[in-house]
Amino acid sequence: MPRLFVALRFPEWAIDALAEATGGLPGADWTESEDYHLTLRFLGETDECVFSDFRKSLEGLTAKSFFLNLKGLGVFPLRGDPDTLWAGVERSEALRSLRNKVEAVAVRNGVPPESRKFHPHVTLARVRDCRADWVGTYLAARSLLSIPEIPIQSFGLYSSKLGPDGAVHTLEREYMLEGMLEAE
Fold first, then answer.
1. Residue 169 designated active-site
2. Which of 9, 26, 100, 146 is deepest in the core (most CB within 10 A)?
3. Is residue 181 part of a domain?
4. How does pLDDT run across 45-72, given as a tens digit for each residue?
5. Exactly one of 5, 18, 37, 155 is catalytic; which is it?
6. Is 144 within a domain?
7. How many domains are contained in the chain?
8. 121 an active-site residue?
9. Within a domain: residue 135?
């Protein structure tokens, strides 16, 4: 059964800007820059029938292209020892709307509703083996991270295979959003 998720990918210049914010934290397991994405919905292990129906149903989803701003760094869990280091996303109604539409398609195709609150982010590293005070210092030094005006003109359905060196993500299908974006 394929392990699926729906996500946004970023243009190369935004990926490069995110990569510049990484490094310098002993014990961090950094995400490869080609794996940077913003998950809209993780479906997990999905049988082939649901996979096929979901993939086709996403073709009917309509939403407009939009700009997204990445801003700030943070960690999960929000309380206690940090586990995951991430880049934050400035509030975006267009992003929330797209995520809600993807969620509705998932539920219509038999996927149980997501129980967790949507907290948009881009995972930069796993920090389980880092001292909490080092993570705090790292966050303070890079708190002004800002990558504005990232054009979002599509989203993708990805499969993920877990291996000894981490997950390998494969784009199964890309879905274009409506309208062309021009830099403001």
1. no
2. 9
3. no
4. 999 998 999 999 999 999 999 999 999 9
5. 37
6. yes
7. 1
8. yes
9. yes
